[in-house]
Amino acid sequence: MQLQMIGCSHHDSAVEFRERVAFSTEQIGTALDAFRNRFPDGELVLISTCNRTELYTTADDSGALGRDAIVSFLAEQHALRPDDVMDKMIYRSGHEAIEHLFTVAASLDSMVIGESQILSQVKQAYELACELGSAGPLTHAVFQGANHAAKRVQTETEIHRRRVSVPSVAVGEVVPEVFDSLVGKRVLICGAGEMGEETLRYLIQAGANNVVVLNRSLERAKTLAEAFNVTYAPWDTFLDQVVQADLIVGTTAAPEPILTRQQFESLRSRRKDRVLLALDLAVPRDFDAGLDDFPNLYLYQIDDLQAACQRNRHEREKEWPKAQRIITEETKRLLADLNHRATGPVIKRLREQAQQIKRDELSRLLPKLESLGGEPAINGEIEKSLDRIINKLLHPPLASLKEDAAEGHQKGLVKALRELFRLD
C-alpha cells in the first residue's frame, strides 16, 4: 500500500476550475464520510484552500482504489464528469506524493513562499480526517512526517522570517524602527479595503490596542472595525484624528492625496512636535511627498516598502536550496521507515513458520531418542543446532529483503517471499 495524491493548485489550474472543485469545511466532512462508506479499507485526507484542492489517499494492491476511482469520487462530489476532472488534475504516487505534501506543508509550493498559514491548514485537514475516521496508519505517518519536515524548514532556514507583503514589511520592519511598542499608540487606518484589512491584522498581532478605522463609507469602516474589535469614526473627522495619531496608514483609492503638506502644516501646533509615522500603502499615494520635510514626521511610501519586499524575496530564494534539502532528507527518512515497517510482518511470519517447523520435528525426534536411551543433555544441543540452521538459512533472504526495503521495494521481494513461503 502506498500514498497517492490527486489535486490542483494555482500553479497548474485557473481559478475558475479551482472554484468548481473546492470544498467548504462542511463539504469536506460530507466527502470524508462518503469516502469511508465507499472505501472502508481506504484512507483519505482532503486539503482545500483558496489556492489548492488535494486529496491524499491510500492506493491498494488490487487497484480498486486507484487513480480512476479517486477521480470518479471527486467528480461525483461536485457533480462533474470524470473526464473534466482528469484533464485538469495532477496525479502523484509513492515518494512523489509524499515529497509534494512535505513541500506544501513547508510553504515551498505556496503563492507567497514561506507564508505560515498553509501548515495550519494542512494540520487542520489531517485533524478533521482523524476526527471523522478517514485517516489511518499510512496517512498518520505521512502527515506527522509533513509536520516534522515543515517545522525543520521553519527552524533551520530563514525562509519564513523574511516578510514579503507590503503590510507585513510596513508593520514588522518599519514600525519597530520608530516605536519600541505599539501598545498605547494611537493608530489611524485610512481605508477599509483588502490592504487596510491586511494591515490591521498585522497591527493587532504587533500589539496595537488603540486603533481607529476611517473610510468614506462609514458602513464599511464599521464592518472592518467590528471584525477586529477596534473603533471607527466618520471620514470628516480625519484631520482631527491626525492630530491625535502616532501612526497613520494610508490604504485608500483616492485619486489625490488625503493629507497634503499644507494641511499638516496647519495641524503642527496642535500636535506639539510629537513623532508621527506615516505609512503610505496606496496607489495613487495618500500622503503628499512633501510631508517628509517636517521634523518628527517619518514618511514611508509604497516604493520604499516594495523595495524591501523585493530584497526579502531574494533572501528567501537564497534559502530555497537549504529548505529543499530538508524536504528531500525527510522524504527519504519516512520512506525508509515505511518500507522497513512493511517488511516487519513478513520477517516475523517467516521466523514463526520456521520455528513451528522446528518444534514439530523436535516433537517427533526427541521421543525416539529417549526410547533409544539418549541423554537429556543431547536434546538441548539438538535444539540449538536446529536454531543455527534456521538462522543460517534465513539470513541471506532476510538480508536481501532489508536491502530491497531500503531501496523502496523495487525488486518486489516482500511479495515474492509471501508467495514462495505462503506466508499469507
TrEMBL record:
| The protein's Enzyme Commission number | 1.2.1.70
Q: Which residues form the active site?
A: 50 (nucleophile)
Which reaction is recorded as catalysed by this protein? (S)-4-amino-5-oxopentanoate + tRNA(Glu) + NADP(+) = L-glutamyl-tRNA(Glu) + NADPH + H(+)
Q: Report domain Tetrapyrrole biosynthesis glutamyl-tRNA reductase dimerisation positions.
A: 322-423
Residues binding NADP(+), per UniProt: 191-196
Q: Which GO terms label this protein's molecular function in UniProt?
A: glutamyl-tRNA reductase activity
Where is each Glutamyl-tRNA reductase N-terminal domain found? 6-157
What residues correspond to the site Important for activity? 100
Q: In which pathway does it act?
A: Porphyrin-containing compound metabolism; protoporphyrin-IX biosynthesis; 5-aminolevulinate from L-glutamyl-tRNA(Glu): step 1/2
Q: Specify one Pfam family.
A: GlutR_dimer
InterPro entries noted in UniProt: 4pyrrol_synth_GluRdtase, 4pyrrol_synth_GluRdtase_dimer, 4pyrrol_synth_GluRdtase_N, GluRdtase_CS, GluRdtase_dimer_dom_sf, GluRdtase_N_sf, NAD(P)-bd_dom_sf, Shikm_DH/Glu-tRNA_Rdtase
Q: Which domain of life is it from?
A: Bacteria
Boundaries of each Quinate/shikimate 5-dehydrogenase/glutamyl-tRNA reductase domain copy?
176-307
UniProt keyword annotations, A-Z: NADP, Oxidoreductase, Porphyrin biosynthesis
Q: Which residues bind substrate?
A: 49-52, 110, 115-117, 121
Q: What is known of its domains?
A: Possesses an unusual extended V-shaped dimeric structure with each monomer consisting of three distinct domains arranged along a curved 'spinal' alpha-helix. The N-terminal catalytic domain specifically recognizes the glutamate moiety of the substrate. The second domain is the NADPH-binding domain, and the third C-terminal domain is responsible for dimerization.
The UniProt similarity line reads: Belongs to the glutamyl-tRNA reductase family.
**Quaternary structure per UniProt?**
Homodimer.
In its miscellaneous comment, the UniProt entry states: During catalysis, the active site Cys acts as a nucleophile attacking the alpha-carbonyl group of tRNA-bound glutamate with the formation of a thioester intermediate between enzyme and glutamate, and the concomitant release of tRNA(Glu). The thioester intermediate is finally reduced by direct hydride transfer from NADPH, to form the product GSA.
Function in brief:
Catalyzes the NADPH-dependent reduction of glutamyl-tRNA(Glu) to glutamate 1-semialdehyde (GSA).
Question: What is the name listed in the Swiss-Prot or TrEMBL entry for this protein?
Answer: Glutamyl-tRNA reductase
Species per Swiss-Prot/TrEMBL record: Roseiconus lacunae
